Amino acid sequence: MSSSETPKDAPPPEQPAPVESSSSVAAADESKEEEISFTVKSIADNKIPITVNRFISVADLKQKLAEPSSIPADRQRLIYSGRVLKDDQTLDNYKIQNGHTVHLVKGAASTASAARGAVGGSSASTSGAGAAGGSTGTSGATNPPQQLPSMAAGTGMNPLSRYANHIPLPSADMFGPDGGMGPPPNPEQMLSMMEQPEVRASMNALLQNPALLESLIQSNPMLQSMGPEVRNMMQSEEFRRMMTDPAIFRQMTQMQRMLGVGPFGGGLGGAGGAGAFPAPGVTDQTPAEQQNQQQQAGNETTGTGAAGAPPINPFAALFNPFGAATQTPRAPSGAGSPGSPPPNPFMLFNPAIFGQQQPPAGQTQTQTPGSGGEQTGAAPTGGAAAGSQQQPPNPFNPFLPPGGGGGAGMDLNQLQNMMQLLGMGPGGAGGLGGFGAPATPVDNRPPEERYAEQLRQLNDMGFFDFDRNVAALRRSGGSVQGAIEYLLSGP
Amino acid sequence: MSAKVPRNFRLLEELEKGEKGQGSDACSLGLDDGNDIMMTNWNGTILGPPHSVHENRIYSVKLHCDEQYPDVPPTVQFLSRINLPCVSQEDGKVDPTKLQCLGNWKREYTMETVLLELRRFMASGNNKKLPQPPEGSTF
């Protein structure tokens, strides 16, 4: 503060002299060992560790902080334990202790701050002028507060603006019209973006920032209405991981599509969604009267669920019920998908594609998954077909004629053609090779393990001959549908 | 929540969070009297939310946690003058029926919750445009 007014309201140790010498001849005399170390948390998560004498005044502390925080002393607001620190008090008055944290925010260099600080009695206007005139060479002196553009004054408070210079901020449209919580505008784009480590890192940083979360919540009525819990949720580790892990993101997109809420999934109506998405508990509901073999298969299912699943389905590792749910629809729908690698998001389209592909099986290979999905969206009936097509694996309906549901008109040759096109070889090597799915390493697992899920389903449907089942699955590249066709047409 | 956290444990937790700055940057919280073993009276500050009339302002509030806290919400009183529908213009008291998180208090809520909710309230709808008394004035 200014040298003209400090003496009258400052405690004795405070020196009116310039900062360099202020901290402080007199104070040092009184108590040399009364040093405290604490953290000053500034904007942009800038943490400034500082060690000072506990008897220096708040004003002195601000002078010390001016440089590391690059906020002129007269614009600093220090907050500790729910109190705004007043310039004329010592740190000791506020009982700041080792290891504690003082918040530093940037306020407008207005007279109001001086008014708040000036308990000592000088009127707001004079102390404001005094501060501006007498401050020790900081920019405040040359910059009358009134002329500061309001934007500049605001920068200290806008949690987004602090990132403007530090990290490449994702463009606004990435967050979507509703503040980022809805389905992303374009999942593929989003995915490729999230593969980049920088983007992930900055997302992480953003999500770690409570202030930003705050403004996110504020800007989104949906979140607002969820009340305070949403804040906890968004601050949790888990949530951050979900937001930033591309694999998880992919899974989420997949699930969205399965449920028919994805961007392209409009056509997969409620019925379709439900059909393609058996209840999570399904795996546990094996009828007791099934044979031992079935039991064995069931056990193996859980085995792969635990060991084999993580690479295939990250969700399974995280949330078991989800894992079960996503596994189940995947296996039947994905021609040759069991061995196919997770990085192929296109496989996720399978339920939809399936519906589209049946009639012209031969041409499907050239069809891009995106267009497949879109077509489904455009033609709701296709979606419905895809949905009912998924019925056979449903254990409650074990004796449904194979290909029954929607696939009435399907003929075996077509289907096998398609199977071959989609899922080649025992490894089910990444099907849909037409658009460059990454090559899968050869799957060396024994068939009962590799096809555990499919075997279980076949068992559910009443096909108990293990060897034949395996043979059929081999032929079909792991597709239950194809295997059934094969089994029924019986060589 | 399986076990009920007793009042003093809860308050100690909140105190530490406030002093060490582990909570939100948008608000701050601390004991009014560090020697008060009952930890009844608290001070809080709320940084005015950006893009509102409250931007760049710092609001001071008092929170009072009686013996039944956290089974009942704390009473909250603004020290800084503020024009807000849930705040009495006479004494700065926050009307619990007008602030959702106080009206529907849950045991898991903390004083920080209240401060952040107040801040959110300031930024919502019309509240961010309400004319405000001069900065620094108090009740």
TrEMBL record, chain A:
InterPro entries: STI1_HS-bd, UBA, UBA-like_sf, Ubiquilin, Ubiquitin-like_dom, Ubiquitin-like_domsf, Ubiquitin_CS, Ubiquitin_dom. Residues 1-34, 118-165, 271-412 are annotated as: Disordered. SMART domains: STI1, UBA, UBQ. Residues 392-401 have a biased composition (Pro residues). One of its GO terms (molecular function) is K48-linked polyubiquitin modification-dependent protein binding. CDD domains: UBA_Dsk2p_like, Ubl_Dsk2p_like. GO terms for biological process: ERAD pathway; protein localization to vacuole; spindle pole body duplication; ubiquitin-dependent protein catabolic process. Pfam families: UBA, ubiquitin, UBQLN1. One of its GO terms (cellular component) is cytosol. This is Uncharacterized protein. It comes from Arthrobotrys oligospora (strain ATCC 24927 / CBS 115.81 / DSM 1491) (Nematode-trapping fungus).
UniProtKB/TrEMBL annotation, chain B:
The keyword Transmembrane does not apply. One of its GO terms (biological process) is DNA damage tolerance. Gene3D superfamilies: Ubiquitin Conjugating Enzyme. The keyword Ribonucleoprotein does not apply. SMART domains: UBCc. Keywords: Ubl conjugation pathway. InterPro entries: UBC, UBQ-conjugating_enzyme/RWD. Pfam families: UQ_con (PF00179). Residues 6-139 form the UBC core domain. Transmembrane segments: none annotated. This is UBC core domain-containing protein. It comes from Arthrobotrys oligospora (strain ATCC 24927 / CBS 115.81 / DSM 1491).
